[in-house]
Design goal:
The protein is an alpha/beta fold. It contains 10 helices and 10 strands. The strands form 2 sheets. Strands 6-7-8-3-9-10 form a 6-stranded mixed sheet. It has a 4-stranded antiparallel sheet with strand order 2-1-4-5, with helices on one face. The protein is globular, with a radius of gyration of 18 Å. About 35% of the residues are buried.
């Protein structure tokens, strides 16, 4: 099977703090993989290393079979053009209106003429159920849910083959969270975009995941499908899913 992402024996330390201690991960085309784990377990560090926003200490990272671990910044820039990221807070540019935010990667990454980029941006806004009417509005004028949708439109504007979602439903009410979850599923299934997500939202986890990996002590200690997640008796998964105060996460010697 050909994988869009292959991570092997990835390690990352900050001084004496060993955050990642040999992570292995595989992602298939159109698959939604969700990374879970306690706060400070290294989930964000892992995704940043995969994107090479942080440099791992050792291990390999392959996109579509190509090792990107030691490629030049110029080559790395080219690979990032096909990656989308939805940041936890949306990370929209406050000084830009909606359409300039969504078309940013097309104009400054691909060098697309602004007029053409705007046409694509409108299409992507419609893809996340937003109308052209908000194109000239600034992020500060939008609700949190609409900001997340605009950020998602920006993430898919360049037609990436992989999107990274960092806590996509944080700070949103349950109904808005459900809408964002549905849009994520639409991206992965209808558009055949592979996704790696980080979330603490159990409802979101159950809704968007095809496979799940639990990161603990610098390694993925459990991995399984959405259905296996709900049936497993693994004590780490059981405690995490149910929010139990007692269990292997908390009962440490």
């Amino acid at each position: 099977m050909k994988f869009v992402i292959e991570v092997d024996n990835l390690t990352k330390s900050f001084g004496k703090n060993k955050v990642l201690q040999g992570v292995n991960l595989r992602l298939s085309k159109g698959e939604s993989y969700v990374i879970i784990g306690g706060s400070g377990s290294g989930k964000s560090v892992l995704t940043k290393c995969i994107l090479r926003l942080l440099e791992p200490n050792s291990g390999t990272i392959k996109f579509d079979g190509k090792d990107i671990t030691n490629i030049s910044q110029k080559e790395l820039f080219k690979t990032r053009l096909k990656r989308g990221v939805l940041y936890q807070g949306g990370a929209l540019f406050d000084s830009m209106n909606v359409i300039d935010n969504v078309s940013f990667g097309l104009v400054y990454g691909y060098g697309m003429p602004v007029k053409d980029a705007y046409k694509v941006a409108i299409e992507k806004l419609e893809a996340v159920d937003l109308s052209e009417d908000i194109a000239k509005i600034f992020p500060s004028e939008l609700s949190g849910g609409m900001q997340k949708r605009v950020a998602l439109a920006r993430a898919i504007a360049t037609d990436p083959n992989i999107i990274f979602f960092d806590e996509p439903t944080t700070g949103l009410d349950p109904i808005t969270s459900g809408t964002i979850n549905d849009l994520i599923v639409r991206c992965t299934k209808d558009m055949q975009i592979s996704a790696i997500s980080i979330t603490h939202d159990i409802n979101s986890l159950k809704h968007i995941s095809d496979r799940v990996g639990l990161l603990y002590n610098g390694k993925i200690i459990w991995e399984g499908t959405n259905k296996e997640l709900l049936k497993t008796d693994n004590p780490y998964i059981v405690q995490f899913i149910n929010g139990n105060p007692n269990g292997p996460f908390t009962n440490q010697d």
